[in-house]
Design a protein that fits this description.
This protein is of the alpha+beta class. The chain is built from 7 helices and 13 strands. The longest helix has 19 residues.
Length: about 260
Amino acid sequence: MDSNKMRRELEARLSREDRVISYDREKDQLRIESKLAGKGITISLGGVVAKWHNEKEKAIDEIVYYVEEGLRAMVEPVQLEDHEKRIFPVIRSSSFPKEAEEGVPFLIDDHTAETKIYYAYDMGKTYRLIDSKIIEKEKWDPSRIREIALFNARSLSTSVKEDQVAGNIFYFLNTNDGYDASRILNKGFLNEMESRIEGTFVLAVPHQDVLIMADVRNDRGYDILAQMAMSFFASGRVPITALSFLYENGQLEPIFILGKNK
């Protein structure tokens, strides 16, 4: 599979009369735009091809699903009033775009040096990031959105899977509801997990659909977590950061783990 074959496959599966598909040869990107919304989604073909070599058809199915739901979200109306339970915070990389394609800024708050907090309106199978245009239309104060979003984040399930490796304990939260990384904002949950930790409490949010928490009890634990975070970061649909975070006194501090030989 190469970029040309992938482009033809995606064009065949995503073509519709109400869409415009264009290809940027120099950047090796495919753009699918909704005529109705006047907005679209750009796909880096190189990344999809790389995933295809590991996941085959699943990689194509996933990107098609992502585009279809993303385009649908662009044309569906957003109504915050009486739909407060649909508002959630989402974690993004500090390098994530600060505004929508048409230049409308998103509602963003600082989180760590590596991450930012954005806010989303849940639409079932996808969500739309809340921007200043939505806030103006709905006549809402941004502080109200922040308060509701964080309240809803605390209501999300916090069931974890546990694994022990080389004397260290790793906890994984992976519900695939789109808000797994958002659980890092639930301080009550983090404090509860901290009470179970015997070593050093270290967390990672390599992409939006996973939160990794580690009870690091020896140096090997740091290496294992760094390898896990990099692997998840490389495979995630919405990567956040491959760095990990120390959790101490209710605060997150990014740390760089220098990996040693396996």
